[in-house]
Structure prediction request, 222 residues.
Amino acid sequence: MYQTTKRTRLGRLPERGVYDRETVHAILDEGFVCHVGFVVDGQPYVIPTGYVRAGETLYLHGSTGSRLGLRPGDQVCVTVTLIDGIVLARAAFHHSFQYRSAVVLGRTRLVADPEEKDAALHALVEHIVPGRSAEIRPGDGSELAATAVLAVPLEEVSAKVRTGPPKDDEEDYALPIWAGVLPLTLTPGEPEPDPRLDLAIPVPSYVAAWERRSPALRQTAG
Ligand SMILES: Cc1cc2nc3c(=O)[nH]c(=O)nc-3n(C[C@H](O)[C@H](O)[C@H](O)COP(=O)(O)OP(=O)(O)OC[C@H]3O[C@@H](n4cnc5c(N)ncnc54)[C@H](O)[C@@H]3O)c2cc1C
Prediction:
């Protein structure tokens, strides 16, 4: 379990709060895009980017010239959101989403150790497209120098999960309005070869068979 803190204890609908590591890890491992919030000169920014979890660390990467890369040690709020459906209630007020989300609060650390940096970048590629790193050209010295890898410890963490049918007001259940859940899933389309690709190169099996990691948690929590 992650210990709840003043900052991570859910105020609204606290019954949807989840703090066990298994649930949080599963959300972080199924997603691969997060939104990183940070404040520069009093102005909040929320920037989408890729990430990977390794143990109890979240790794982000970006250009050394990006604001995040330039500001190691900043306090950040990293959010990952998985949408599992649209909840259509009878009343406008009760419309919602089926979702699983995780919020990580912490301070970034610039990964300076070349081994840790290399492992994090490798894990990032494998997290998004498992099997890819075995055949791509690895980053060279100048590419690695231009890439900042930031680590955020998984210490102050919360998850929130919504499942189940709409929750209308009792008197509205008699209304002749369709209500229910429209499930949504992320599925890949047909791979589109680069126009400059040598067409003798086939689509790799890990691309043809790519799928979002198993949504094992959809049926849990209320
Ligand atoms: C796809 C999606 C759509 C949503 N739509 C709405 C909406 O339309 N209106 C609405 O009011 N709310 C919506 N929510 C819920 C929303 O994320 C917040 O939980 C809610 O607004 C309460 O915010 P708060 O700042 O008052 O949270 P509080 O409960 O005060 O937050 C306290 C702490 O709880 C944790 N926390 C709060 N929300 C989340 C979360 N979603 N995931 C993980 N940890 C969390 C954080 O650590 C936060 O610091 C939606 C959530 C998702 C994922």
Notes: DSSP finds five helices and ten strands in the chain.
